[in-house]
Amino acid sequence: MNASIIDPLQGDFPEVIEEYLEHGTMKCIAFNRRGTLLAAGCSDGNCIIWDFETRGIAKELRDKECVAAITSVCWSKYGHRVLVSAADKSLTLWDVVSGEKITRTVLQQTPLQARLHPGSSTPSLCLACPLSSAPMIVDLNTGSATMLPVSIPYSNPVVAPPSRNKISDGTTPFSPTAACFNKHGDLVYAGNSKGEILLIDYRSVQVLAMVPTSGGSVIKNIVFSRNGQYLLTNSNDRTIRIYENLLPLKDGLKALKGLTALDSLDDVEKLKVVGSKCLTLFREFQDTITKMHWKAPCFSGDGEWVIGGSASKGEHKIYIWDRAGHLVKILEGPKEALIDLVWHPVHPIVVSVSLTGLVYIWAKDYTENWSAFAPDFKELEENEEYIEQEDEFDLIPETEKAKESNVNEDDEVDIVTVDKDSAFSDSDMSQEELCFLPAIPLPDAPEQQDKCLESSSKLVESNNSGSPLSEEGRPNGRTMNHASSPLEEDPGATRLKRKRKPSEKWLDLQL
Description:
This protein is mostly beta strands.
């Protein structure tokens, strides 16, 4: 899709279901950096790599040790590796090109989400968010795991915010904690059950700042925009919040350590002061009428749009807001619950996963606008009389002859240098990025092979019984004369060979 010819008045967001993908029961999806490949985790433990340009299967990653449902998939920075987390508590790192398993690590708890370190082309570290324990940094090479802190000890119990999740005996159960890396992977942002966003140095396992949310509810999702300038949180109070990142995109950890606070304050207040210098609330999104919960909210590729799926059962609705907070579109799909959602990194395309395992592709419903192709093209409401110029259809008009060309035709044209795309400004051109995979035809199912063998055997029998080349065959009621036929049977083989006519020289030698 050529972005330069898109009509800006139509809006860069999808409108209708363009197509759907079907293969098994898919549960979660993720695009690679360029949006050319789509990874989908299935309920049987397999990971399918779709070629998003052709909408065909490019690779199928099968693990015989894993038969549980996939909970999340994540691409490495340059697309050569895919990390898959499953319900059997396993983390599996795959080589996409060869389709071979690199490492497999089994945790103590089921990982709901796992993310590879974004700062390395061949990452060995990942951030895992288990079901009933704190987020952890996992070394995939050694299998070692480091727990991250998810709460701050309050010195004054009165100051501690009350928890909204208590069971009958008054204790607070552990709820899943959402966490993510920042753009370059030197900090971890975690949202806990108290509605606090913690900025953690995972190397020293230390909380450096804390940002309390206004609702104080459990944070279910936390994700950065593609450019790293905005942070999105989805809380149990049915509100999506957007925070602006005040730290520099590079060396954010160094800048955070350089921030100072008043020594007279206690640790909690000090972390809050530092947190106010790291994140500031930018916008809040919610449905004030239905007060619905949100599923898998995320940013668009350019960060200009925010989307969230309805968490209501039997509803496949996707809400789209602009960054100013205005609801611009509600996409209504089939009567199937939505379980995952992702926006294409480059194009205005949204891909959603339904409870039945189908993947729906939402795209724009384009209308023809010829002025978008030719800037000097003018649409007319009615016919107008046009007077052509005298030299309008000359090969070289007089007006062009009068102009002096400022182009030096002897200059060499550079056809090697690749211009950097603003959407991938941080990509290292020295690293070879994986964008496409060679198509490998899948073998037929055993039932289809049996049908093919039966049909081929029937074809051979029909050829032997009813063929005019057999002895019993009588074309047009007559017996075939083999002496006059250019074909004869080969008794030592099943095929037929052509009988060669003797040459005149061979006949003279026989005489």
